[in-house]
Write a structure and sequence with these properties.
globular, chitin-binding, chitinase, EC 3.2.1.14, Glyco_hydro_19_cat
Length: 265
């Protein structure tokens, strides 16, 4: 992502949670993704939006139970960063939790060469849900893992909120979770890098960053207490992995020199 500076990206993605978290219990999602936090996400959707009332915290928390590895890390700070990154992308993909379906439905997103996942006649695989999953080669395996017929009932992603969030977490865990330590830029590349990175769509990149900014602004109102202890019992004052404002050398993950070997959503 040419022109996107670490100093701009990093501060937008830090979630500052008040109080102590109980470490060693997955990621503390129930605490970090609080009612207040989720309400801040959905409050930006117009009352007339199709996604209004569909994307709920209860649906997310239910889906998360199937993917307890999401945002699980020895470091609470790393967990918060992953959650912030996830919802920054969700905010962008759904236009602030407004849309369940892709606006332009003219493309069926059917890849006839996707072995094992043939398109069902009359069905389309355009973007749906929090991360706008698309293509038959994503709907097929997502449905198999989650437990719904993604090829014959792709619309289930935009009619069942729990399935919807499960598909988003399925895609995230398969394509993004493993590279979260490389920085926010790497997550953009994993989700839509072919179209957006390398100057392909700077407006989209900036909007994803803005999504993180909304979370950061809300959390900044909370007062940070003493450093949290990680799962090994050591206090972590400042990891600086996503922050170049400290005394340590700024991180290098934003120098994205390798293409990821995944298929886009």
């Amino acid at each position: 992502m040419d022109g996107v500076k670490p100093s701009i990206l990093i501060p937008l993605l830090l979630i500052i949670a008040a109080g102590e978290l109980i470490v060693g219990q997955n990621c503390g999602c129930a605490y970090i993704v609080s009612e207040e936090f989720f309400g801040g996400l959905t409050s930006h959707a117009n009352p007339s939006c199709e996604g209004n009332g569909f994307y709920t915290r209860d649906a997310f928390m239910n889906a998360w139970q199937s993917y307890p590895g999401f945002a699980e890390s020895p470091s609470i700070d790393d967990s918060k960063r992953e959650i912030a990154a996830f919802f920054a992308h969700v905010s962008h993909e759904t236009t602030r939790m407004c849309f369940k379906d892709q606006a332009d439905k003219s493309n069926p997103y059917c890849d006839p060469n996707a072995q094992g996942y043939p398109c069902t006649p009359g069905k389309t695989y355009y973007g749906r849900g929090p991360l706008q999953i698309s293509w038959n080669y994503n709907y097929g395996p997502a449905g198999q893992e989650i437990g719904f017929d993604g090829l014959n009932w792709p619309e289930g992603v935009s009619t069942d909120a729990i399935i919807s969030f499960k598909t988003a977490l399925w895609f995230w865990m398969r394509n993004v979770h493993g590279i979260i330590g490389q920085g926010f830029g790497a997550t953009i590349r994993a989700i839509n890098g072919v179209l957006e990175c390398g100057g392909g769509n700077p407006d989209a990149v900036n909007d994803r960053i803005h999504g993180g900014k909304l979370h950061r602004k809300k959390q900044q109102r909370k007062k940070r207490r003493k450093p949290l202890a990680d799962a090994r019992g050591k206090g972590r004052e400042d990891e600086n992995r996503w922050d170049d404002g400290g005394s340590k050398t700024p991180p290098t993950p934003f120098n994205l020199v390798q293409e990821a070997s995944y298929q886009g959503k």
